Amino acid sequence: QAPALAQKAQRSTREWQQADAAHFLHPFTDSKALAAKGSRIITKAENIYLWDSEGHKILDAMSGLWCVNVGYGQPSLVEAATRQLQQLPFYNAFFQTATPPAIELAELLAEVSPPQFQHVFFAGSGSEGNDTVVRMVRHYWASLGQPERQVIISRENAYHGSTMAGASLGGMRYMHAQGGLPIPGITHIPQPYWVEHGQGMDKDTFGKVAAGWLEAKILEVGPEKVAAFIGEPVQGAGGVIIPPATYWPEIQRICDKYGILLVSDEVICGFGRTGAWFGCETQGSRPDLMTFAKGVTSGYIPLGGVMVSERVAKVLIEQGGEFEHGFTYSGHPVAAAVAVANIRLIQKLRLVEHVRDDVGPYLAQQFATLKDHPLVGDAETCGLMGALLLVKDPATLTPFPAELEIGMVCRGHCFGNGLIMRAVGNRMIIAPPLVMTRAQVDEMMALIRRCLDLTLADARSKGWL
Ligand code: PMP
What we know:
Blueprint: H1 5-8, H2 13-23, H3 31-37, E1 42-46, E2 49-52, E3 57-60, H4 63-66, H5 75-87, H6 100-112, E4 117-123, H7 126-143, E5 151-155, H8 164-169, H9 173-177, E6 186-189, H10 194-197, H11 203-221, E7 226-231, H12 247-258, E8 261-265, H13 279-283, E9 289-292, E10 304-309, H14 310-318, H15 333-348, H16 351-368, E11 376-382, E12 385-390, H17 406-416, E13 419-420, E14 422-424, E15 427-430, H18 438-461
Parallel strand pairs: 3-13, 5-6, 5-7, 7-8, 8-9
Antiparallel strand pairs: 1-2, 2-3, 4-10, 9-10, 11-12, 12-15, 14-15
Helix pairs in contact: 5-15, 6-15, 11-12, 16-18, 17-18
Bound molecules: 4'-deoxy-4'-aminopyridoxal-5'-phosphate.
4'-deoxy-4'-aminopyridoxal-5'-phosphate binds at residues 125-127, 130, 159-161, 166, 232, 236-237, 265, 267-268, 293, 304.
């Protein structure tokens, strides 16, 4: 018989791990390997810190999964959820109905988004947001009498979610390999990653060359068949790939030239992450659609969706008839109430300005000092996201062989030293909560240096250097 809740809370770490391994299939996880090792059990959090079931304090330099923008433990979000759960825990938006929190959130999103956005379609996650994008752009072109415009162009190593359409838009080949993806009508161009494709070129030239791959693909597919281009302003899960400043303006020019819809996936970059409300504002594009999730509620409760520009909304509303798409939780009142409280808190704490003018530039300055470390080939940031490139030789950017998994070695030291940093291949990445202070940046930098030194000592002792 299952123990009562109160008793469950007192289980030991080992007991939690056993029950976890027995019943819980984790996302993106090798379950056999995890069961042998045991999960780390996180039990509470405050501000930018987590605590595990053994009482260890951990600095969360990943904001959970890139989402806890306002930090943990914000009472106004908890109060908004509690109030709404009591007043009206659920009602849908299907049958010509709406709820006050969903309407208020739609209004507030239009206020904080770039001016072309006055409408929103709600979903439950970023993946559902991107599934909505696929359906919506094809419906848009069909409504305009151009149903042959079906193809959506994305990038290799992009991440757009884990549903069938989300994973297809994404450019992760190992995801495509499971499940026969991508679905038809989705094609990819190389990513604007200078280390991979641009060495020997100055970065601004490379940005234009990489954007040119979009034009080449449009011409290959046939401009009359292309519906949209989708990209993250800064690729997150791909390893915080910050494109050269010339990239997005050139992408915009090409989309304009062929009349193709531009979709900015703002699931990570939205809500202040890059030092503007949305990453497209930092990177210089004027999208027709924006996918959002994560930071819209700071991850306190699931919510996602798509901001729809007037270009698209006009056609949907005036010519589209019924859009045969939607989710039970499209406009969920509790999620919407939390999102409203979250956005108001971002405004009240002036977090966008804090990232743009204060803690973002400070992080950039501190991060750059890591370039003197013998393992670091590059260190770059955009707002409060950043990446370190771990290399064998910083002068030549010679990589470690992939099978040594240098990133995972470094990540192991981070976990062992009270720091959550993520490894993507040979890139160590961060995206800490936007409430982070300069003193906390210093604290994080000291931890990062210590973990790099431990990784270096490991690499030397194993004869990798
Ligand atoms: N787009 C981007 C850019 C993302 O980073 C993610 C999630 N990491 C998604 C979409 C998918 O969001 P979700 O996990 O909420 O479905």
